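Re: beginner question about structure tokens

> Can someone show what the tokenized structure looks like for a real chain? I only ever see the sequence side.

Sure, here's an example I had lying around. Input first:
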Amino acid sequence: MPNKRKSESAIPTTVFLSYSRKDISIANWLRNELKEKEFQVFQDLPDTLPGEEWWSRLKQLIRESDQVIFLMSENSNSSKVCAEEIRYALDLQKRIFPVLIDNIDWRSVPEGLSKIQGIYLTNSGERASSMAILTKAMGTDLNWFREHTRLYNRALRWKNKGMKADELLTGDSLHEAEEWLSRQSPKHAFPTSLHQEFIFHSRKAEIANQERTLKESEEQKKKIDEQRGKAENNFRAGIDIITEIQHRIIENLKQTRGVSSATQEYAIQTILSASQKLKNNDPDFYPSSVQMQLAGNELYATTSLAEVFLRQGKFKEAEFSAKEAYKLSEAFRLDDYNPLQRRPGLLNTSKTLAILAEIYSRQNENSKAKEYLEECRYIQEKGLEYYSNYSEAEDFRTELAETFHRLSVTNILLGKKEEALLNSQEALKHAEYLLHKDEDNQHLQIKVAIAQSSVADSLIENNRLEEAQKMLDYAINMFSKDLETSPDNLFLLHWKSICLERLGNVYMFQKAYTDGFEVFEQTLSIKKQLVEADPNDIHYQNDLKIISSKYESAKQLANT
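And the corresponding structure tokens:
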């Protein structure tokens, strides 16, 4: 890279120190330690002049910092100013190092920090080794974070000056920024939407300027085409990263313990708004493939939002979002100009129908739920039949297994026990077929365990208790094994609790009340964990009420 700025080694690493003023003594000690190691430390008191508007100054210090250290204590955890500083740093996608200086209640830490590994300064005798760990960590991916800070401040200046063209990047600076954007970002750190917008407008302006300057000669036109191709490739790389980040964030929000449905709703609403803004920003500039990718991002976020609304019991909002997702997926399926989009469009259409079915099922409108599921099943079976001529059509078979599982549950609720058993057996057949093709696939092993549980539920309804017990034992062992490596995975915890509850039902039907009581006790413990992890999920709350009642009944019968 051309040496147009100071050499990287000559640039001091900037860090903002967030702390409670009740901890000023150790904050000053840490500041001095970092200064001795040639870090430039920004702190509220030493770096704010008398008469300055303090919050604006603090935000400026955070923006100009490559990294943030949060001195974590009961004092700072209860500080509104500290919470605002951390929230602002997270909004800017800054890398944050939680440094613990006393024992704390982890439930009180600022939102977003509990999943980040902390560094402990609680033992004065180990401070030297802890400081070594901290400074080493702060040096990891340092150049990426420096560029993140530099480009963000450039972008903010451009925005604050009315988005004037003379503030945009050009030439090598723009090319370097695009290369930075296309590189894989470090863990827990991503470019912001302002980064994307700034670089996008810079490239757009660069192309427009080149086209005005070079349009007279064929050779010059060739250069423009080369630049445009490079821009599109870099832009596509950026869009690919945005898509990956969006999916990663949403999936992690769904599965991580301690992230409430309300927080998920806010995060996905933000992602959806950004997706829509990017898609509608300048559609004529985008190639058709990019337009479809951005539309796919909007569809994924809209579908995820419907699922979050459903978990919170916001049925009207869930239905509205699901129907919006249905319209978007149908646009994919019916697009004659992009036939490759028909397959994902068909799959997403069936998924939105399944969500609509779940919305009505939660409101005890099971006949209407079944209508949506039958339509969903029809689409998936037709898709499986057609695409099996060209591939294994594993995507359609996977979704079809899930639909048969849902139909089994719905038919149980409608009192159609034999039909429910047939549905659950179909679900298991498709899941086992997929696993047979890829026996080491952990995701497919979980699918089979879920299908086994579904069949067991139908067997219980048909009074075939011994067969049900064997299937439930298999499923419970599978979920327990996976939870050993992913103990905070809410999806696995939820399904293990379902299987344990069904096993407890078997014992109660067999009048093995002590066994039933012990299993319900395990189930109750997991249900409490789920409610604690997401108090806004009404499904978890209802499940807890049901299992609490079963637990008390089993307890009385076991003691008689």
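Each token stands for a local structural state, so reading them left to right follows the chain. The first helix runs from residue 24 to 36.
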